[in-house]
């Protein structure tokens, strides 16, 4: 299978300090890889570096056949990468409809995702189309953030802790939504502390520690190896 994302020997950090210390990671076309690791391991830093929000010191980031290390976020976006940021970051003063229209730009013919299709996938958003971003529940904001990302028609989604701050029943709604995207051919790199959610959605697991990927396994294998999960993540 070909890889949509190939990261090689990536080094990055803040103000000359090192956070990513030689990251090697691939995400297969259409596959979901869960990026696990303790707080401070560098997961968000990796996602931001792939998106072009942080310039790497060295290394390569390939999306398809384009090398995007150091490219600006709009260039990365145009190559088919979309981010659902931690904390959701929807535009609070704008309505659901305005948030979606802004992300869609001009609906061009032949695009897989349109505002209408996002509403079909998430009827709750359609009901709330006139509500402002800050009038939505946490789960609705998360759905809006996912809808905005889909409107970029991505081949790779970067999801940074989609369960963060959501009640368990709402996490389940988000899981059902993301499961519904299987078969759309969208690959995902999923940063997630909620192991149940990560295991449910991802075919493979990659574990980050001190700025490096220290373990990679199919989800079924990782789940079965509780001793290793405990050693790597501090959970049972
Ligand atoms: N904007 C920033 N400026 C300086 N240092 C930062 C910045 N963002 C993160 N760091 C530092 O980089 C390291 C990695 O943080 P990062 O957020 O990437 O980890 P993480 O694995 O995503 O953790 P978490 O699960 O807590 O979000 C931490 O030591 C953090 O303090």
- Second-tier CATH architecture: 3-Layer(aba) Sandwich
Which structural class matches the secondary elements? alpha/beta
What is the arithmetic mean of pLDDT?
92
Radius of gyration: 17 Å
Bound molecules: adenosine-5'-triphosphate
Shape: globular
> What percent of residues are in strands?
25-35%
Examine the coordinates and then state which fold CATH places here, giving the name of the CATH topology. Rossmann fold
| Spatial gap, N to C terminus | 32 Å
Helical fraction equals 25-40%
Low-confidence stretches: none
Number of domains: 1
- Order of H and E elements: EEEHEEHEHHHHEHEHEEHH
CATH superfamily (homologous) name: P-loop containing nucleotide triphosphate hydrolases
Report the total helices: 10
Give the number of DSSP strands. Answer: 10
Keywords: Amino-acid transport, ATP-binding, Nucleotide-binding, Transport
Domain ABC transporter: 5-235
Organism: Nonomuraea rosea
Protein name: ABC transporter ATP-binding protein
What keyword list fits this structure?
35% helix; binds adenosine-5'-triphosphate; 10 helices; 10 strands; alpha/beta; 236 residues; Rossmann fold; 25% strand; four-stranded antiparallel β-sheet
